[in-house]
Design brief:
Elements: H1 2-19, H2 61-70, H3 77-91, H4 95-147, H5 153-175, H6 177-199
């Protein structure tokens, strides 16, 4: 009996925590970090004005190849910085034209990657809210079966097992959320580091 009561109380608490959102926050956002929907070029770039969306950086094959390499998170930022420096040396007098294109590509790629992560987190939050509501409903059904006259032991057993499984599934998803919530910040940090490295080679 104590186990059943504890399960019901926990499921109700999880549902409340999952559906409650801070004031002015996106109700589907599952992370403790503040949600930033869009990145601003000005927050990362103080070099010559450029619009990553229209810069045409993909049409420059050397630039596109560099962007593809340095935006890979498996490449250490130190190695990426070295590649940018080597590219700038090879560009010579043309680097003041090509380095902004490199930034445009880096911003474009990492911003799109970040948008996908944020969109995925939104979907995760929506799904988690649905699971939390299911936990709440299962808890209410179990409470009703427990207080029925006469008690339906078979139904109580079935609902208890379902609630336990759903709770474990909910908790496992919640535990996996920590790294995913850090990803937007990780991408922003890489974008900032690459932008600084690119600007260092512009006169």
């Amino acid at each position: 009996m104590k186990l059943i009561t504890a399960i019901i109380a926990l499921s109700a608490g999880i549902a409340t925590a999952a559906t409650a959102a801070p004031r002015n926050a996106d109700p589907d956002w599952p992370c403790q970090q503040v949600k930033v929907g869009e990145l601003s070029v000005a927050a990362f770039w103080s070099g010559p004005a450029i619009d990553p969306a229209t810069a045409g950086w993909r049409n420059n094959e050397p630039v596109a190849a560099l962007v593809a390499a340095v935006t890979q998170r498996r490449l250490p930022i130190e190695a990426a910085t070295q590649r940018i420096a080597a590219f700038a040396r090879d560009a010579g007098e043309d680097r003041d034209r090509t380095m902004p294109l490199v930034f445009a590509g880096v911003f474009d790629v990492l911003n799109r990657e970040r948008e996908k992560v944020v969109s995925g987190l939104d979907r995760f939050g929506q799904r988690q809210k649905t699971l939390a509501e299911g936990l709440r409903q299962d808890g209410e059904a179990l409470r009703a079966a427990q207080t029925a006259t006469p008690p339906d032991d078979a139904k109580i057993g079935e609902l208890t097992q379902r609630l336990l499984w759903d709770q474990q599934f909910f908790d496992s998803r919640r535990q996996s959320l920590s790294f995913a919530c850090d990803l937007p910040t990780i991408i922003e940090q890489r974008l900032y580091g690459l932008a600084q490295a690119i600007q260092a080679h512009i006169n």
